[in-house]
Each structure stands twice: as C-alpha cells, then as structure tokens.
Amino acid sequence: FGHVRGAFTGAVADRTGLFRQADGGTIFLDEIGELPLAMQTKLLHVIEDKEVRPIGGEQIRKVDVRIIAATNRDPQEMVAAGKFREDLYYRLSVFQIRVPALRERREDIPELVRFILARISRGNPAPRKLAIDPVAEELLAAYAWPGNVRELENVIERAYILADGEVITPGDLSPEVART
C-alpha cells in the first residue's frame, strides 16, 4: 500500500505501493493463502472500493488494477477452517485455474527434465547436453515431489553439476529422490 515519509521509524521517504504502481494494469499476488487475516481485510477493501491509502497518509488514491492471485493451498478448505475470508475468496474467484501438482502429472516429468536441462545448459559458461539414464528417469517419476516443480528444478540442477559424463545417473540425483 506504500507509506509516507515519517509514517514509522525508518520511513525516510515516501514509497509508492504496489497497487498504485500497477494502476491501469495487473498485479500478481503470489501465495495469497499465506496472507494474515488483518491484511486480507485491507486487500478486500482495495478490491471493493478500488482505492488505497498509504501508511501514515491521509490522501486516498483511486486504483484500477486487475488482480491475479495464486496459492498452493486449497482456498475453500482455508475458508472452512476460518483462515481465509470467505468474502475475499469470492471476490478473487472470478476465474480459477487449477494446476495439478507434479505428483499428479508424472507423465510431464521427462519433458520438464529436458526443458530444465536445456535452460541450465544455456545459462552455463560451459554448456553440456546431458541425457538421463533410464533408471534415473524412473526414480524421478516415482518420487512424490512435495516441493513440486521448484524441487524438480533443484534436483536436476544438482544432477547437472554432479554428472561426470554425458548421462545423469541415479547417483547424481539427490538422496531423497534416489531412495524412492
């Protein structure tokens, strides 16, 4: 929401908030499920009234912002548990896209691995084109991926670094994945 100079200790200058910066455009709110209830109330006000007031400020500013919100939690379960405001949920639920977890779409893992390897190789000063050993690929497909695609990226980057030859082997994978 931004703040004005002197609003709190350390506020040495005015700071424009993200909603004002996004005025006339789109703002992405990642992990909306982590938002404390008090902040949810403030967000609901911005959505309903299309206005913000910086911390310590008296002037209210109109904003026209499209909101894209994401969470890895089930917002309906959070509403039922009293951890997410129901009115905010319905304000944000204009159009929902559910992206299944990696463990629910294991058939995508080989293509994701190739994509990640190509990206790592392009960004590497000494690029290498690596293949995946079939046993390593089976281990990747069998793993539960609690960290989803971010965890897969880390596992593949680690394997890229550790691979001796031109093939990623089970020994190059993280211990968690190799144990599956």
Outline of the structure:
The protein is an alpha/beta fold. The chain has helices at residues 18-21, 37-49, 75-80, 86-92, 109-122, 134-142, 148-162, 175-178; strands at residues 2-3, 15-16, 26-29, 51-52, 61-62, 66-69, 131-132, 167-168. The protein is elongated and about 65 Å long.
Quick tags:
two-stranded antiparallel ribbon; alpha/beta; two-stranded parallel sheet; 40% helix; 8 strands; 180 residues; 8 helices
Based on DSSP secondary structure assignment, what is the total number of beta strands?
8
Order of helices and strands: EEHEHEEEHHHEHHEH
Largest sheet: 2 strands, antiparallel
The main sheet orders its strands as: 1-2
Distance between the termini: 46 Å
Overall geometry comes to: elongated
Question: Helix/strand-derived class?
Answer: alpha/beta
Mean pLDDT figure: 94
User: Helix coverage percent of residues?
Assistant: 40-55%
Report what the structure shows.
With 180 residues, the protein is an alpha/beta fold. Strand 4 and strand 5 form a beta hairpin. Helix 5 packs across helix 7. The longest helix has 15 residues. The mean pLDDT is 94.
Sequence-ordered SSE layout with sheet pairings:
Elements: E1 2-3, E2 15-16, H1 18-21, E3 26-29, H2 37-49, E4 51-52, E5 61-62, E6 66-69, H3 75-80, H4 86-92, H5 109-122, E7 131-132, H6 134-142, H7 148-162, E8 167-168, H8 175-178
Parallel strand pairs: 3-6, 7-8
Antiparallel strand pairs: 1-2, 4-5
